[in-house]
Amino acid sequence: MESSNQSQANRQPDIIRTGKGLTIAGTKITLYDVLDYLKAQQPPHRIREKLRLSKAQIGAAFAYIEAYKAELEAEYREILKTAEENRRYWGTHSRYRLAPVQSVHSSLEQAALKAKLRIWQSKLSVSV
Question: Is the pTM of this model over 0.90?
């Protein structure tokens, strides 16, 4: 019995808390991602495929969700509320909201290329 307790004590947790929230260990997948699929009534095998999880990982996620359902649902609601508040804020305060994404990226790329060109020009003028 003692060796069983020792192996459990040395075992790594399957679900960990990171800056993103409750996360499946060894991945960037949160339990909130899994909950999104469950709320969309996706079957477990489909969730596993979409999130590229092993059977053990998806099993651990489902077990955790079942064991801490009430607490997890409350946390999930808070996250959804915060996400919606952030969307509304940035929707009204973004100075780039009317600019096409492609043109923003291309101007950033052009600026980077111009900076590299200036560096090379200065190196060439020094060596001449």
Answer: no
Tell me the DSSP string of the chain.
Answer: -HHHHHHHHHSPPSEEEETTEEEETTSS-BHHHHHHHHHTT--HHHHHHHHT--HHHHHHHHHHHHHTHHHHHHHHHHHHHHHHHHHHHHHHH-TTTTS-HHHHHHHHHHHHHHHHHHHHHHHHHHH-
Structure tokens at 2: 């003692």
Q: Are 61 and 26 in contact (CB under 8 A)?
A: no
Render each residue's pLDDT in the chain as its tens digit; 128 residues: 444 444 444 556 899 998 888 999 999 999 999 999 998 999 999 999 999 999 999 999 999 999 999 999 999 999 889 889 988 888 776 665 555 555 555 677 778 888 888 888 877 776 55
8 Å CB contact between 65 and 72: yes
Beta bridge partners of 49: none
